[in-house]
Design goal:
By secondary structure, this protein is mainly α. The chain has 14 helices and no strands. The N and C termini lie far apart (41 Å).
Length: 279
């Protein structure tokens, strides 16, 4: 079990690294430029170069920072992002969570605590404002997030993600609830702080957001957790709305992940007050 979890986390981190490269390549294509192409063959080693730069960079602790909260928050955010992958729907798993949907709903809500601890511990008005906006944004979508997630639970009569996938072999929920799927995907964009709903990291309004005081390897942990959450939300989206056999599942996950990048390249940032009115 421990070895299975360890291998899962290693492959998740590798997948996250190359997903960042894929995003930079695709954004370059959307903007008619080359993108990363110098490190290794066609820039394939660029994620490792970025990781080496961030993890060897000096991290300066500011005098007025709450150093314990500043160090705790990034590790908490990364731990929660990795912990959610324990419910990954695969057939040859040595462990499983019986009520995996409830587990996901509970654990995913804990991300807010890491963000607000990071914003408060930085002792900066910009960081604290970014943390407060993150809480307001997350809480405002919790009811719709939970209700849409319960639709496949009622149809499959199970709280296990793997059984929800199996129940769609003859009836794909995406066809029956297409409108619900688009509402769900909009909520997921807001939950993962992705464009056009990336208000937590609004550079033009908050300098950088809750992580304005972070740098080096501490910032890298927050960056890694954000992209791990994107991949996991793609897996959950495919599992509860399409649920095709495990052979096709990775290709559909890549397609949903591509949608995150495509939307980022296509739409400008929304206004925060308009996002709150949508709820």
């Amino acid at each position: 079990m421990v070895l299975s979890l360890l291998m899962t986390f290693i492959f998740i981190l590798l997948g996250m690294a190359f997903f960042t490269l894929c995003e930079r390549k695709l954004l370059a294509g959307f903007q008619l430029r080359k993108g990363p192409n110098k490190v290794g063959f066609m820039g394939l080693l660029q994620p490792f170069a970025d990781a080496g730069k961030l993890f060897t960079k000096e991290y300066i602790i500011l005098v007025l920072n709450n150093w314990f909260a500043c160090f705790l928050a990034p590790f908490l955010i990364l731990f929660i992002a990795l912990f959610m992958w324990t419910i990954y729907p695969i057939l040859f798993n040595y462990y499983y969570v019986e009520f995996s949907i409830l587990f996901f709903m509970c654990v995913s809500r804990l991300n807010v605590y890491g963000v607000i601890i990071a914003g408060w511990g930085s002792n900066s008005k910009y960081a604290l404002l970014g943390g407060v906006r993150a809480i307001a944004q997350t809480i405002s979508y919790e009811i719709r997030f939970s209700f849409i997630l319960l639709i496949p639970v009622f149809l499959s009569k199970s709280f296990r993600i793997l059984l929800i996938c199996k129940s769609q072999h003859y009836r794909v929920y995406l066809i029956s609830f297409l409108a619900g799927f688009f509402i769900w995907f909009t909520i997921v964009l807001a939950e993962t702080n992705r464009a056009p709903f990336d208000f937590v990291e609004g550079e033009s309004e908050l300098v950088r957001g809750f992580n304005v005081e972070y740098g080096g390897y501490i910032f890298a942990l927050i960056f890694i957790a954000e992209y791990i959450n994107i991949l996991f939300m793609s897996v959950i989206t495919v599992s509860i709305f399409i649920g095709l056999p495990c052979i096709i599942l990775p290709f559909l996950v890549l397609l949903v992940s591509y949608a995150f990048i495509w939307i980022r390249a296509s739409f400008p940032r929304y206004r925060y007050d308009l996002l709150m009115k949508l709820t």
